[in-house]
Amino acid sequence: MQATVLVPTYNESANLEPMLRALVGVLREGDRVLVIDDNSPDGTGRIADRLAAELTFVDVLHREVKEGLGPAYIAGFRQALAAGAELIVEMDCDFSHDPKDVPRLIAAAEEGADVVLGSRYVRGGRVGNWGALRRAISRGASMYTGFFLWMRVKDPTGGFKCFRRAVLETIDLDAVTAKGYAFQIEMTYRAKQAGFRVVEIPITFVDRTVGTSKMSKAIVLEAVWRVPLLRLGR
What we know:
Largest sheet: 7 strands, mixed
CATH class: Alpha Beta
Number of strands: 9
Number of helices: 8
Distance between the termini: 33 Å
Helix content: 40-55%
Strand content: 15-25%
Order of helices and strands: EHEHEHEHEEHEHHEEH
Radius of gyration: 16 Å
CATH topology: Spore Coat Polysaccharide Biosynthesis Protein SpsA, Chain A
């Protein structure tokens, strides 16, 4: 099953080339990478174009404005589906998701899972370099989501995923409104509501060491109000 890995970028000039070269060693023949750049002022888009000219498995989608993680992924989903991808992988560009885990997500999807979620909170999963406060916030977000949405997913905010194309063709992508990390909750919830099988596999998550986090108070607040609305079908 041909897989396309989606790598959204905004000011990831220091991370993009190492990430793409790391993916060279784990992707299979025929698999592809789609870099989705939101007009990064640090030149990430130019780096992506240079690497796409060198690495034949890399494509680049340039977006004119920064709209957030959700709209970037939706645009990537549409392009990957149009190009015939059977599996679509989401991963961060900052190495918080280990490229070596990509084959494990793909394998779980090929074995029958509809959505594979790289999970920090199932047995064997872990977080590498967070302090106590960051761990508490993340765990609290998972509990908050679980209280409202009853998904029985231990890491609902996780963003390292593999979707079968049927999932993305079934979900109404136009109805997905979350822009920040609430997008990850919304996509998993909509997949579960549509009857798809979500499987969590353990990963080790490490915080970025290069570049700046995109997390903000606005992104956190969006998740706080968006989760109850999902429960109400909005």
